Structures are given as structure tokens and as C-alpha cells.
Amino acid sequence: MEKPIAIVTAASLSLLLAATFMSAARAAAPGPEPSGQELAFDNRKGNCLACHAMPGDPKAVTSTNVAPPLVGMAARFPDRSKLYGQIWDATRSNPDTAMPPFGKNGILTDTEINKVVDYVYGL
Amino acid sequence: MKRATWILSCLGMLAFSADAMSVSPEQERLKSVQAVQKKYPDIKFEDYVYGALAFSADAKAQYDNMMAFPPFESEIDKGRALWETPFRNGRHYADCFPGGGKNVAGNYPYYDETMKKVVTFEMALNQCRTKNGEAAYKSSDMNTMGLLTAYARTLSDGMLMNVKVKGDGALAAFESGRRFFYQRRGQLNFSCASCHVGHVGEILRTEYLSMLPGQATHWPAFRGGDYALFTLQRRYSACNQLVRAVPMEIGGEEYNNLEYFHSYLSNGLPLKASVFRK
Predict the structure, then answer these.
(1) Bond before B220 cis per omega within 30 degrees
(2) d(CA B189, CA B194)
(3) CATH 1.10.760.10 given to domain A33-121
(4) Dist. CA A123–CA A110, nearest whole Å
(5) What is the pLDDT along chain B (278 residues), one digit of tens a residue?
(6) B58 touches chain A (CB under 8 A)
(7) Does B195 contact chain A (CB < 8 Å)?
(8) How many CB pairs (< 8 A) connect A and B?
(9) Which of A64, B161, B233, B254 could be a cystine partner for B266, CB 3.0 to 4.6 Å?
(10) Are B234 and B146 in contact (CB under 8 A)?
(11) Can you spell out the DSSP letters for B158-225?
């Protein structure tokens, strides 16, 4: 009488395990890559909107006035590497800045910073 | 050349620390108040206790409405029951404090010369418990210590913060709290001061940034849509997590020293418990 119960328990355990692995696999599966705009808006990623208004993008909803608005960026940063460097570690050009060092501290990857630079250049 | 730079930067650090040490706690407090007054001359000193609400008439009106009939009043009543229930020896919390616990919270934290450390109001409540044969509460437990202070601090409503820093030990604890406040930490590399000194009154996405003076007066707070109870030190812990730093222990020495510095910087401002905050 005990054996069938053991089998059933083992079976349901393995089902449970399988389900756990499947959901883990689902979570790890790469979703669509976020765009530069999404990275800039996402408060777990760039969160640029926390401190910078972006009047050139009607989707950029924020009330912030902490840092300069992102406008005319291509004119302000003709050298793309300067803008990249500013996002990578803004404390290099201004030790007192509150801006997080996105590259240096691994908040954004190199690819992600480049996407944000592309997006911000269009503002 | 490298060596010269290194020596120069060491000299710079020496000059900086000598400068930091020469500023007394009171000069530090006045400097901090004057900086806010200069940036926001229309905001009255006594309104600094409202923090971010001081910058928005709308948000302040909503707060006033909510505080007329606080939706978390039953939680404060639970704290009152904890405060009024006698210990097994028949004594009460009220027996541990002058005036039965009325108008005392503004004297905390203080530096205890015998223990050689900062004592917060929460620690004094625990000292009262252990002196009377009861086990101490965990400072991080909002269902015991949190609720208890949510009522106990109401007995000091209106009292002006009156924290004292006297003697070398007290100064060292104050200085340690000050360093914590100005030290950048976490993956996001923020110090408390990055926002609450450097960008006071500015808007972070949708929220105003509160000013340092007054920040220690309105605790605990019931926060957000679910009115979660936050003591001041739980707020420190949450803030540290938001900047992606490993939080310190609630009730531990680092946060106690921070609270000591933080409370001193609120001196002269009236206390209020327990309040709503976003």
C-alpha cells in the first residue's frame, strides 16, 4: 500500500521540479532587447528621466529639474566619445556630480550605454 | 610627477579633515539651515519638518486632510496598548521616563558617557524592558518596536528637538554620523547629501527632495498606499537599498550615529508622531 504513494509522491515531485526548471528557463530566456529610449526611461536601468527632462520626446514624462534637460545633444557633444564618457563616469569631469557612474559601476553594459547615446543624440 | 600629485592630494585631504574638524556641530547645523534659507527664502524654518511637502501646497493639503483622520490610527492604538500593558513585574514604560514619557523623545539620541555610545529612544525603550525583566525587542521589528514607538513618540508631539553633543566621545559619534551622511555608497554612488544637500527642493522624476534640517522630526511614518510603518532607521535601510548598497543593521552603531548627527541637525524643530509620508 505504501509503494504507490511513494511512486505518486516521486512523480509529483519530479513534475514540480520540471515546472520549476521550466519557469526558471522562461525567466532566463532573452526577451526583446530594450531600446535606447526604454533604457533611458526604465528606473532600474538608465532612469535618465529621474534627473533630466527630455522636451524633445513627448513620451518622456517627468517633472524633474535636478540636472540639465537633454536638448541639442548632438550640438553640445560633437565628440560622441565625450558623451559616452559622461554616461560611463560623470564624476571624471565633475567630482561633485550626483550622476551615477553607469559604466564604471556596471549599472549599464557597454552595449546599453551605446544605445542610450544613440537615443540621446536624437534629442 | 605622480609622486608630487600623490603628496599634494594627501596634503589636500589633511587640509580637508582639519577643516571638517574645526566646524562645530552647531556651526554645521546653522550652515545647513542657512543654505536652505538662501535657496528657499519663502519657506519658514518651522515648516522644514514637512520635508518634501514644504515645496508643494497641494501635497501639503492632502497630508493635512489625511492627518485629520489618519487611516492608520488603529495601528497607533496597537502601540498604545503595548505602551500601557504592564510588564510582568507590574511596572510600566511610563515609569522609566521622566514625566511618564511625555516630552522626552526630543532629548534622543544622546551620547552615554558610561556606555561610550549613542542611545536612541528605541534603545531607551529596550533598556526599560530589560530592566524590568522583559526581553528586548528587535529594533527592525515594526510589529513590536515600530508600533510601540508609533504611540510612545506621540507623547512628545510638539517638543522641540533638543539633541546635545558635548565631550570628545559625543563629538566622535557625531562626526561618524556626519561622515555616513556625506559618504557616497552603493552601485548608484549616492550619498544622503547628494540629494538632500546638493539638490534640495528639486524634483527627482516626480518627487521633491526634502531638506536635511527637520528630516529627523516626523517619525515613525506610515508610508505609501499600504501605510507601511517605517521608523527613521528603517527608512535609512530602505534608502541604502535604493542606491543599491548593502544596508546596515537597524539599531546598529552606524545608523545610531547617523541618527545622532541627523537629529542634531533638526534641533529647534517640533516633533510629530505618527505621520503619513509617500
Answers:
(1) yes
(2) 9
(3) yes
(4) 20
(5) 445 555 545 444 444 444 445 689 999 999 999 999 999 999 999 999 999 999 999 999 999 999 999 999 999 999 999 999 999 999 999 999 999 999 999 999 999 999 999 999 999 999 999 999 999 999 999 999 999 999 999 999 999 999 999 999 999 999 999 999 999 999 999 999 999 999 999 999 999 999 999 999 999 999 999 999 999 999 999 999 999 999 999 999 999 999 999 999 999 999 999 999 99
(6) no
(7) yes
(8) 41
(9) B161
(10) yes
(11) TPBP-----SHHHHHHHHHHHHHHH--BTTTTB-HHHHHTTTTT-EETTEEPPPSTTTTSS-SEEETT
Chain A: closest CA distance from residue B230 (Å): 23
Contact list in A for residue B209 (CB cut-off 8 A) is 66
Distance of alpha carbon B40 from alpha carbon A94, whole angstroms: 25
pLDDT at B3: 52
DSSP code, position B25 = H
Cite the beta strand spans of chain B per DSSP E: 110-112, 117-119, 203-204, 207-208, 221-223, 228-230, 275-277
Among B189, B195, B203, whose Cβ lies nearest the Cβ of A101?
B189
Sign of CA dihedral A83, A84, A88, A92: negative
Alpha-carbon distance of B35 to B81, in angstroms, equals: 42
Domain ranges, ordered by start, for chain A: 1-31, 33-121
Whole-number Å distance between alpha carbons of B101 and B76: 16
Chain B CA closest to residue A98: B194
| Residue B242 contacts A, CB cutoff 8 Å | no
ipTM of the complex: 0.84
Grid-cell match 511614518, residue found = B221
Q: Please state, in angstroms and rounded to a whole number, the distance separating the CA atoms of residues B52 and B39.
A: 14
B187, A105: Cβ pair inside 8 Å? yes
> What is the Cα–Cα distance from B268 to B214, expressed in whole angstroms?
9
**Topology (CATH level 3) of domain B27-70+160-277:** Cytochrome Bc1 Complex; Chain D, domain 2 (1.10.760)
| B239 a catalytic residue | yes
Establish if A50 touches chain B: CB-CB under 8 angstroms: yes
Contact A106 B187 (CB under 8 A): yes
